[in-house]
Amino acid sequence: MAHSHPHSGESLRDYFTEQLLGIMVCAGLGFVSIRMYTNGMLNYILAKPFHLPVLVGGIAIMVVIVLLRAIAVWHEAGALQAPAYDGPECSPDHVHDTTCNHGTSYPGHSHDDGDHAHSHDMSWMFVTMLILVVPITLFVIGMPNSNMARLAAIAEAKLEGRNSAPDQEIGGASLRDQAKDATVEDEKKQADGSTVRTLKTQTGLRIRETIPVSGEPKYALITAEGTEFRFNDLNDAAFDEDKRKSYEGQTAILEGRFKRIADKDFTLFRMKMTCCAADTVPLKVRIVVPQALNGINNFDWVRVKGQIQFIKMPGGKAGAETYIPVIMVADITDVRKGEPKNEYEQ
What we know:
Blueprint: H1 9-38, H2 51-81, H3 122-132, H4 134-140, H5 146-162, H6 175-179, E1 183-189, E2 195-200, E3 206-211, E4 218-221, E5 227-228, H7 231-237, H8 241-247, E6 251-262, E7 265-272, E8 281-288, E9 301-313, E10 322-328, E11 335-337, E12 344-345
Parallel strand pairs: 5-6, 7-12, 8-10
Antiparallel strand pairs: 1-2, 2-3, 3-4, 6-7, 6-9, 7-8, 9-10, 9-11
Helix pairs in contact: 1-2, 1-3
């Protein structure tokens, strides 16, 4: 083909229509990429390490494809508006012949009729535009959003539950049993004659022991203000002895989805995204409360505060010890419903 520029009125119109629609769609895609980065919508579909490349890609689209191409098309259209023509003027009733210069004297434009064809197929072009505009349409109607992520997380948790054995109720040893070998950190006499001692167990739990003048001692967990912990950190620590020892006894605050196992035992979970929403898996931490817990349904978003423990579970591989992270709650008031946040832990 001698050239790729349109030469007839119809193909000229189709050519510039295609260019303008392409620029508009690319501008929309670039804007959506940048906006999803700035408003946090990428959190619902993409892992954190991939957010910056999306932003850079959006900026590159706006600068390279949209801005530079728009300038090029603008100059091209200007060059075609007033083609140079030095031949004689044609009268209204003249006969066209080879001396006429209609449509053939665009700057740098020559015809080779033996090898001249145009491929501006508008039907395929519109199909292409419709496909490209799909992500823009989804963004306009507010997708992805937190509700979509919530439904995906619940569906993933249900599927994971069906494909694995039911969680065992752990309960754990009573505080009385754990206090037997505990170290006394503090001891005070009360005005009524009772004694209050602060104990630290071998697994790091801090327990308040109240010994009355008569009767049985009473035990309660002692929790501090607490620190926000990540599910991933606790799950990783379950496989590392040094980390287990450093975390045990600390007061942790966790937020996630509730899934009941027994009256005093439930799982809190959140989703981990390795790359995108399609490869998410649930991260789980077991929660043990001192009293039966009511008023919370499966998959409610809850906030929990308690002391970290790692409990050895039976059924591990030969010669291997399997631990799971557990939060021991001092009072059921430390388990309360919260406002849903991002389902995915980054």
